[in-house]
Design brief:
Number of strands: 26
Structural class: alpha/beta
Strand content: 15-25%
Helix content: 25-40%
Largest sheet: 8 strands, parallel
Shape: globular
């Protein structure tokens, strides 16, 4: 958008302003008018544009960046977690978990028998090394008549007590869907464990509260995100409830976050390849209902995507991520492991004909597909489908995003580049403790281990990467996550290594990390013509930092503090 550059509303000067433009320029000054950037450059050139009413802000050599774009997260799920009962991702035994839940129940005695208790940030995998797992039987020992569910930190497992299963309508005759599991014990009875899509759909069906309670969740979510410097999010499993809540804030003039989203198409909602056109047409109608075709300074919505869960989870005990070669499984104990080959390849939730038809329809409709592809088998099927779509629609601007990519194959990196697909990465997953590094090396074998949690390999092959925290899978800590991309190592709160370096790929540079959370994330969400870099003609979405990240070691990035967050030229959060 071209604007008169004279008499801007605000000029920031005397700063270190990283623009994230094509040349990665760092300049001194920036001018904003009517919520848009109208000039960047030297202090002398930009200050010369000032009029009598222009506000002049001295950055005092502080760093300014484009606002962070978190291109894969679940903000409303995260907001529910912030307000409810949660286990704080702690490594707890079954007994410790039950004790914490009972304590929460005892503090809330006035709840009725039908009032749900949803427990979040449950680290299920921490229970497995000691040979125990949560179950319906264990949850039924709680002193309550209320329905109780635990939702795992990876959002792929839900554990329910008997009352919750009853209210979810799950009984011994409930069929197992194609995209997940309904667990049973050794006697063939329901054990209360739901995995993958059944877990997510069950959790989605649990009432959040009144519309106004949903608005309170949305308001709190945007505040904590703004505080960390986030100006735009991509909700990668969006539905009406959260959009209605954020829209209520917009109507009140209180929305301080640009909200993008991708509505899911599930395997059981498509009746064969011939039904794919109908499924995508419904996505188009949903997106048109919410999408703002052009963005302005006032935050709003961007819906032009669709979500597909192609596979599951890589880590034991679930191991539903799809591999090209079978898993190895520990048939020994945690203390004395004995890893042996299996015939388990994980799961592909869509058949190849249906998935290729759906991706073809993305090309026809211009909807951008966003895929959950954890491992090499799912990545392979997705890249094959994208190759056919590109051949059928060579001129269509479709921007696929493959999220997670925890285990790729050597042949995949160059195909991402040639097919114009972005690798959407949650960097913190490369910060593994030693025990998990050893376990995954044993599970995958030496040939595949070099492609675990790849990051630099994508860039070196010419592919584009976009950052997405996947919150609330992990704690919301954007700068810590970005630090792990530069170190491939977990860190404690004092800044000391909390584990060994995952030494199978190179570190990313600070510029590479920043681009992945700004302009390249903007490209993936198809909004790079409006946001993502600080250039004339783009919206003034920016942050100012208290510390100079360009003159500090990577090991200090997690300490980064945001001084202020600006969206559309308006300060929406400011440090005290």
């Amino acid at each position: 958008m071209k604007k008169d550059v004279l008499n801007p509303d605000v000029i920031y000067h005397n700063g270190k302003i990283y623009t994230a433009d094509s040349a990665d320029q760092i300049c001194q000054a920036l001018a904003i008018k009517d919520g848009w950037i109208v000039a960047v450059g030297t202090d002398q050139d930009v200050l010369a544009l000032a009029g009598q009413q222009t506000q002049i802000i001295d950055l005092d050599q502080k760093v300014m960046l484009p606002g962070l774009i978190d291109s894969h997260m679940h903000p409303f799920w995260g907001g529910k977690q912030l307000r409810g009962c949660q286990l704080d991702y702690a490594a707890l035994t079954v007994e410790q978990t039950l004790e914490k839940i009972q304590a929460h129940l005892d503090r809330d005695p006035l709840k009725e028998a039908d009032d749900w208790l949803s427990v979040r940030a449950w680290q299920r995998q921490a229970m497995m090394p000691v040979g125990a797992d949560m179950s319906r039987k264990a949850l039924d020992t709680l002193n309550t008549r209320r329905p109780v569910v635990l939702f795992s930190n990876d959002c792929h497992t839900l554990a329910a007590n008997s009352r919750a299963l009853e209210m979810l309508g799950i009984d011994e005759n409930t069929p197992v869907p194609a995209d997940g599991q309904i667990g049973r014990d050794e006697d063939g009875r329901l054990n209360g464990i739901l995995e993958d899509a059944p877990a997510m759909r069950a959790f989605d069906s649990i009432p959040t509260g009144t519309p106004e309670q949903c608005v309170l969740i949305a308001r709190h979510v945007q505040q904590v995100l703004n505080e960390q410097g986030v100006t735009t999010v991509m909700d990668t499993r969006v539905y009406d409830e959260q959009l209605i809540a954020f829209n209520a804030l917009r109507e009140r003039g209180e929305l301080t976050l640009r909200v993008c989203g991708a509505k899911e198409i599930t395997p059981d909602s498509v009746d064969g390849p011939a039904d794919a056109a109908r499924a995508l047409d419904e996505i188009v109608a949903f997106n048109q209902q919410w999408n703002d075709p052009q963005w302005g300074p006032q935050p709003g919505f961007g819906l032009s995507h669709v979500k597909f869960f192609v596979d599951g989870v890589l880590q034991p005990p679930t191991m539903t991520a799809s591999l090209l070669q079978p898993y190895r499984e520990n048939v020994g104990t945690h203390e004395q492991p004995n890893w042996q080959p299996t015939e388990r390849y994980g799961d592909l939730y869509f058949t190849q004909p249906v998935f290729e038809a759906l991706i073809h329809e993305c090309g026809r409709t211009g909807v951008h597909p966003h895929m959950h592809t954890v491992a090499e088998g799912a990545i392979e099927m997705t890249l094959n489908a994208l190759e056919k779509m590109r051949a059928a629609f060579p001129d269509k601007d479709v921007r696929p995003g493959l999220a997670h990519n925890e285990l790729a194959a050597a042949s995949h990196y160059a195909r991402f580049a040639s097919l114009g697909a972005a690798a959407v990465l949650s960097y913190q997953w490369a910060g593994l403790p030693a025990v998990l590094i050893d376990e995954e090396r044993a599970m995958l074998g030496e040939d595949r281990f070099p492609h675990l949690e790849p990051q630099g390999r994508f860039l070196d092959a010419g592919a584009r990467i976009a950052y997405g925290s996947d919150w609330p899978i992990d704690r919301l800590d954007e700068w810590y996550n970005l630090q792990i991309a530069m170190t491939r190592c977990a860190w404690d709160s004092a800044g000391n290594p909390a584990g060994p370096r995952l030494d199978n790929d190179r570190n990313l540079t600070l510029i590479e990390v920043l681009r992945s959370a700004t302009i390249d994330a903007a490209w993936m969400i198809a909004r790079d013509h409006e946001i993502g870099s600080l250039e004339p003609g783009k919206l003034a979405d920016l942050i100012v930092l208290k510390n100079d990240i360009f003159n500090e070691p990577p090991e200090q990035l997690f300490k980064t503090q945001v001084a202020c967050t600006v969206i559309g030229g308006k300060v929406v959060w400011q440090s005290q």
